[in-house]
Prior knowledge:
The protein has helices spanning 28-32, 43-46, 51-59, 73-76, 85-92, 118-127, 151-160, 200-214, 249-262, and strands at residues 2-7, 38-41, 66-70, 103-109, 131-132, 135-136, 139-142, 163-164, 166-168, 182-187, 236-241. It has 264 residues and is of the alpha/beta class. It has a single domain (2-262), classed as TIM Barrel.
Amino acid sequence: MIRVGIGGWVFEPWRGEFYPKGLPHARELEYASRKLTSIEINSTFYRTQKPDSFRKWAAETPDDFVFALKGPQFATNRRVLAEAGPSIERFFASGVLELKSKLGPVLWQMAPTKKFDPADFASFLALLPQTLEGRAIRHAVEVRHASFLAPDFIELLRKFSVAAVVVESDKHPLIADLTGDFIYARLQRTSEKEKTGYPRRALELWAKRARDWAAGAAAGDLATIAAPLPAQGRRDVFIYMISGAKVRAPAAAMAMLEQLEGSA
């Protein structure tokens, strides 16, 4: 399964651009979830949500829709990651399982200044629950400091079956190594000059990478840090249009879905 979406669904410039004029704000998630196949919830990064919110979001979206959740900054924005246990436990006790089958990967985003400390990072990964109430939980880690461009980091992620987020950005390193049983990509180069956010050629290229990943292979045109894994089974792929010219993110996501459908 290849899913494509955006970060959040509340953004004033989308009203009249992505959302039809006059659409009630309360129906924006309902609308967005029928144009896209996933949404990354960013509000969970900043504050604890309530179980009722997760139940409401699940009820407003189609049966086959999936949310990704951004783990709380209280867990990742700290000097010693090994001490994040209480924040991680509080996050998972806040009601995230109320999303039921619509709960997708959890994204743990490190601060740009956070450097790679192998022992401390291993302790952090060990705190991430692999299952909750009998349900498998998928984790992805986004790092933004060059010190993580090390084979030891990739090997740690593989040991814990945690995905390295593929970030396309002018600010942060791109890590394309396969480390988990799914792919999580955040594309941050949408341009307001492009009606579809990304030029057609770029959309075609990312669609090809997504198909390769879904088939179990690496994206052959992207360099890796560690030795590649042998070919494995199919992988789920999650792609989010984030940052860049945010007003174009929904158009870019829909254009990517069209590319994938046209090449199926």
